């Protein structure tokens, strides 16, 4: 079979000029995207130009359009905002303005544009592309450019990346800046919660989102807010009464604080704005609660980009250059975006039209449709919030008489508590009696099992570690006692939240079903481990928080090196044999190298890395960052690599080493992990309810099929239930990692951005997808 793979080596940018600009409102991560475009462009042999101050710089020309060098984008990865400036530009909206812009580009030979901005900026770029040949004709007629120049530059190629903290652009799951804005909001909410608790206060928080409620909705999910108001789903008439009732119920339930989150564009059924002051007055007049309003404003746009935004922007920047290299005159302008865990290209105008349709639907009060048009990610967030937010009175609940137990297994991971809270509340809503098992399988066989109620998990989303307690003990040796406890408490289903031990434990329990009928119940595992080493899932709860911890530390370390100069840091990350944290952390922190077990390395590789850093010290970037996974090689230890670099770098650079250790497991969970944990556990609980009905026969639950013991994992674009037995072949049990790991495809990206020549398989990219297919109703999407 012929090799149909496509490699970066066969794509050349020689003779091409790419202009990169940021336009519209700034967003954290724009700099990471600019850096990736510049470095990838230079890597493939193209010339890359910064266009400063967005379209204004393109119109004004002169020094606003400057050639970029490799070093000129150094140190910008961790900076918020946009270093090359952004401006709202009136001139570009006029024909004369666009004519000036076309002249400025042709004079520099730029016929490829990479535009990073919101829908307005991208629409402007598309109009410019459509007018391009007409503008060149005008310039020829007025004698400003020659016929030859017009011929040479006859086609303008445009690729967009969406930089917007509101996540208000259809066709992409996440826009650059959204995750960082959520980080800012959650930091504020966590801080407000402690003061609100002290005084028994109600806080009304206004977050950004004039036309889109994404930030409000996800932050409400991530902090367990009592009430949320968003433009896409105005509250029904009489909502004031309902909201006040909910707040007073929560207070009666010993909850000392209330949080209400309002999107700045929140409206009622009649499209009238709902303001924070109106809500405050309502709460004070009807309930007499001490109420405060906090408007977050531009705090949400500021600060350093999160690890997710840096990786997203770096992946998109590289993808944008590939799209420009492959563009032909007939290719429509496209947007590079993210769908699930995959980079995709979608036609720019289809996205813009869909985004405008959402607004139109909202204006015409077709709110249900507006939510659907926003896409599956938004819809799922909304459904999960609805599921978790309304505590039904006992008389309203379906009563199932099933008992479901939840436990944490393995090492603690941030986000585990959010998953437990979600599972408990969804379980109660579905009518089950929920039991919490302390200390994993060890607590299970010792009988540390008690009923857990709705109020017991209040405030759990933002807590790090594992509040239930977690142990690495496996069940096989204690299976008799576990079966006995299952019988005593009449446990009809199990939800296990944990890492590799949870995976092994589920396999052991399933294997013991033949001896113990008590174990013939539906069981599901939700992956939660910082190492992200679970077969059957691209991501696990806790990994994002760990990556952010690594990235923050690396930022500080790089900053310390900026004073001393000529210093290389060797940093050891966790992960067992799995190189995910070292690789993805390296990409987010701008590392020069990351040593991992999955990609064997020898002394020649170490030597070439030292030589590479020696060359780097001759430039203006006089610092290096090297990550090493803790088990990447038993002989080339962190100490060995530190000593080797110290010796080989003598007189050129000095070395320091840093072992990050357990700080990667601790800390408050990131917004992503809170949200992921909440959604995945809710889905697992709904699966349990379905299976309990399916396997209920003659007054008892009996489940003995392969598909009644599953792992719920995220695969590319969807959440899938996979029987653990079927995952055996995908697992390297000795090293506790999956045999195939998607993130290894990101390694060439890290190397390219660190100026290494490497082979990069780009077969995965390049397919232009249509937006309608993207939003096909997919219930398994997250």
UniProtKB/TrEMBL annotation:
It comes from Danio rerio (Zebrafish). It is found in: Cytoplasm. Allosterically activated by ADP, AMP, or fructose 2,6-bisphosphate, and allosterically inhibited by ATP or citrate. Its EC number is 2.7.1.11. Transmembrane segments: none annotated. It is an enzyme of class 2 (transferase). Residues 403-782 are annotated as: C-terminal regulatory PFK domain 2. ATP binds at residues 25, 88-89, 118-121. This is ATP-dependent 6-phosphofructokinase. GO terms for cellular component: cytoplasm. Mg(2+) binds at residue 119. Pathway: Carbohydrate degradation; glycolysis; D-glyceraldehyde 3-phosphate and glycerone phosphate from D-glucose: step 3/4. The lineage of its organism: Eukaryota, Metazoa, Chordata, Craniata, Vertebrata. Beta-D-fructose 2,6-bisphosphate binds at residues 472, 529-533, 567, 574-576, 630, 656, 662-665, 736. Catalyzes the phosphorylation of D-fructose 6-phosphate to fructose 1,6-bisphosphate by ATP, the first committing step of glycolysis. It catalyses: beta-D-fructose 6-phosphate + ATP = beta-D-fructose 1,6-bisphosphate + ADP + H(+).
